[in-house]
Each structure stands twice: as C-alpha cells, then as structure tokens.
Design goal:
With about 140 residues, the protein is of the alpha+beta class. It is about 50% helix and about 25% strand. The chain is elongated and about 85 Å long.
C-alpha cells in the first residue's frame, strides 16, 4: 500500500510539472508577435486613377505610416537595424509606380502584399533569412 502511494505521488508531481511546462510554452507562443514602426513617414507624389470622372489622372501627395509585424523580437530588431535597406526599396517602388488605384479594399490589400514582398526579398538578399515580415500594417494613409 505504501508503494502505491509513492507511485501515485510521483505520478502527480510529474503531471503538475508537465502542465506547468505546457502553460509556459503557450505563454511564449502568445508573445511571439512583435512589431516595428517605420520612421520617418513615407511621402511621395502620386497620380491617382479616377475611373468615374472625365479626368482620368489627378496629381496627389501620399503620406504613409507603416508598421511591420514579425514573428519575434529578434526579427523586429533586425528590421530596425536594416531599415535603410528596405525603406529605400519602398520609396523607389512608390515613385516608380506613381499611377496607383487604391479605391477598393482588394487594391489596398494587394498594395500591402507588394510592400511585404519587397521588404522580404531585400532582407533575404542581405541577411539570408526568409520571410522576416509577416504582415504590413498601414497605420495612416493620407492622400491630398
């Protein structure tokens, strides 16, 4: 009988220890997402396509505030350290493609996906690490 009690106590202690380990792992997985805010804001001139008016193109100014979502704090630090590399590519992309149509949600989603791809490709060339940026969040977009 004493032997059974010892086995039960050992089993109970092992169960509690494994439950604690599972809880710690789940907390670590929750905190995996990290963010990096690109500073300064991006300013550019755009030609906005207007499909429902007689004048097809209107010159506007674009101001963007962008935040990048990544999988870890380490990746956020890499984004901050190498910001000049991908900021250059983003500005060149926006200035090269001045005719932008962002009237619908789908077009804005495609724009963010393109920005994410530009950043990831540039960082992969430099750091030999794929898919650092998981999502591009445009926190402010002003078109004047």
């Amino acid at each position: 009988m004493l032997y059974m009690k010892k086995i039960f106590i050992i089993w109970l202690l092992l169960s509690i220890t494994s439950i604690q380990a599972l809880a710690e792992n789940s907390v670590k997985n929750i905190n995996k997402v990290s963010y990096h805010k690109i500073k300064p804001e991006i300013h550019s001139n755009l030609n906005i396509l207007k499909t429902n008016s007689q004048m097809p193109i209107v010159l506007n100014t674009l101001m963007l505030k962008i935040t990048l979502m990544t999988g870890s704090q380490k990746n956020a630090e890499l984004l901050q350290k190498h910001e000049a590399l991908y900021l250059d590519k983003i500005i060149l992309f926006i200035n090269k493609n001045r005719k932008v149509n962002m009237n619908t949600r789908k077009q804005k989603k495609q724009f963010k996906k393109t920005l994410r791809n530009i950043i990831n490709i540039r960082l992969e060339k430099e750091l030999k690490q794929a898919e650092i940026v998981q999502k591009v969040l445009i926190t402010q977009m002003i078109i004047e």
